[in-house]
Write a structure and sequence with these properties.
The complex is a heterodimer of chains A (about 190) and B (about 140). Chain A is mainly alpha-helical. Chain A has eight helices and no strands. In chain A, about 20% of the residues are buried. The chains are: A mainly alpha (about 190), B mainly alpha (about 140). Chains A and B meet through helix 3, helix 6, helix 7 and helix 8 of A and helix 2, helix 3, helix 4 and helix 5 of B.
Chain lengths: ~190, ~140
């Protein structure tokens, strides 16, 4: 067997184990940490799949920032999740099985991994690969596509992130107008109660 | 105050390195993996690590909320501004060929905008969330 394939199977197996643990554990702190582990494992797997830029983003955003943000959110709620009742789980179970079955049904239509005929490697993708070195003079085609060929999309993504920041500020940050206002205002409210 | 002496000492050594690595990811993005998004998140991680170890108030003194708000807006403005500049130079929106430095200059400029917005928005979100939570008491560490 191809050694890379063994890595694929190992990473997918670990991802599956972590996912099961996330579903089964009630301690939210452990769940948040395990989602970080899940992201880091996926990042490692993306490296095996030669998607280094994606792996980089997954490691930084998934394992780094979102773990911290989830911890911050957890501090605002409870440390333990109530174990769900069996009756509440039947609906989600069927939804998950149905989605999984549909995905498996669609699987044969996917191009083989690394196939030269896949949509990503033909049409415009192949053209970007051919033209980047003459037009952009840059070795990293991903950056060239992201910042130049698809500049509109990246501008849109940047504005989406900016909008997310504005939304969080509008919802949560109103009391934090000055430096440290958020904490003292919340504290004060708690003391009043 | 000395409860987390090891954490504080180690992170004091790590934070400048994290920030430096963010800049490396930013400016090496043309040649290797990386770019504004990743660099922005890593830069934000440096600030967040500082806040986690030294407390939110200290972090807000070092990186005031008003600065991150301005930075987030400036980044988006810089990206869109490059597009407007190319319009005025006679090209299409975000057509870097008309810029004095060509494609490379345009990409560096917009990636800088992405870095600013991503890093600042991540810090904004972190400040907003952790500003609401009580500090973790020492027993819970």
């Amino acid at each position: 067997m191809d050694p890379l394939q063994i890595l694929d199977i190992a990473f997918l197996g670990m991802l599956l184990a972590v996912a099961f643990a996330i579903v089964r554990i009630n301690s939210l702190f452990a769940v948040v940490m395990l989602t970080g582990v899940y992201s880091l494992l996926s990042a490692a797997w993306f490296v095996v799949l030669d998607a280094v830029d994606v792996a980089f983003t997954e490691a930084a955003v998934g394992a780094g920032i979102s773990t911290v943000l989830m911890l911050g959110a957890m501090l605002l709620t409870a440390r333990e999740a109530k174990p769900p009742k069996f009756r509440q789980q039947i609906g989600p179970l069927f939804a998950a099985i149905a989605t999984g079955a549909l995905l498996f049904y669609a699987l044969p239509d996917m191009p083989a991994y690394g196939s030269a005929d896949s949509p990503a490697n033909s049409y415009v993708g192949a053209e970007y690969l051919e033209r980047t070195s003459e037009e952009i003079h840059m070795p990293n085609v991903v950056t060239a596509v992201l910042a130049s060929y698809r500049g509109y999309d990246t501008l849109g993504e940047t504005v989406v992130i900016f909008t997310a920041g504005v939304a969080v500020l509008l919802l949560l940050g109103a009391s934090g107008a000055g430096a440290g206002g958020g904490v003292s205002a919340t504290r004060k409210r708690e003391e009043d109660e | 105050m000395n409860a987390h002496l090891v954490l504080k000492t180690v992170s004091k050594a790590l934070i400048p390195l994290i920030a430096l690595f963010a800049l490396y990811v930013q400016f090496h993005g043309d040649f290797g993996p990386g770019g504004g998004f990743q660099a922005g998140v890593i830069m934000a991680a440096a600030v967040i690590l500082y806040a986690l170890v030294y407390g939110l108030q200290e972090a807000k003194r070092a990186v005031p909320p008003i600065v991150v708000r301005l930075g987030a807006s400036l980044g988006a403005l810089l990206f869109a501004g490059v597009g407007v500049v190319t319009l005025f130079l006679g090209g299409d929106f975000l057509d870097y060929d008309v810029l004095p430095g060509g494609q490379h200059a345009g990409i560096i400029a917009v990636e800088l905008g992405v870095l600013l917005t991503v890093a600042c928005v991540m810090v904004i979100i972190f400040y907003a969330f952790s500003g609401r939570a009580r500090d973790i008491s020492d027993e819970e560490w």
